[in-house]
Amino acid sequence: TIVQLPQFESIRQAAKRERRIVLVHVGKTGGETVRGALRVTCRMRKNPARRKECEQHFERDHYETSLSKQTIGSIHCGDVLPTPAILSSATTLLWTLRNPIDRTISWFHYTNPAHCKPSE
Question: What is the pLDDT of residues 58-71, one digit of tens each?
């Protein structure tokens, strides 16, 4: 006889449900690259003309992945959190992560005064 453990049943049940993903972007971890592959980025634009332009670009240049179709929102750590409705309707949080040493070096180069634009 095959014994099915409850934890495996819950995984199967979760796989059958519609997944609603919220991307959590931690700075300097590649989140902008991930967001670029998600249509939700277009829907989050406030300017209607920019939103339409993004949608048209997305439809023309990207094949929409299953991940993109299931993503309902995106937040950046440090920004104002999304509305509780977005978080409460999410079934999954997708985090962008990176090796801490690499992330620190990237942050250093990003914030290095030598890379700043001169003030006028």
Answer: 888 877 888 998 99
Q: Is 21 helix (H, G, I), strand (E, B) or coil?
A: strand
Instruction: Calculate the dihedral angle through the C-alpha atoms of 12, 17, 19, 20, rounding to the nearest 10 degrees.
Output: -140
Whole-model pTM: value is 0.69
Q: Which of 82, 99, 63, 62 is nearest to 22 (CA)?
A: 82
CA 64, 92, 57: angle at the middle one, nearest 5? Answer: 20
Specify the DSSP element, H or E, that contains 14: helix 6-16
* All residues at 6 or more sequence positions from 86 whose CB lies less than 8 Å from its CB, including other chains: 22, 72, 73
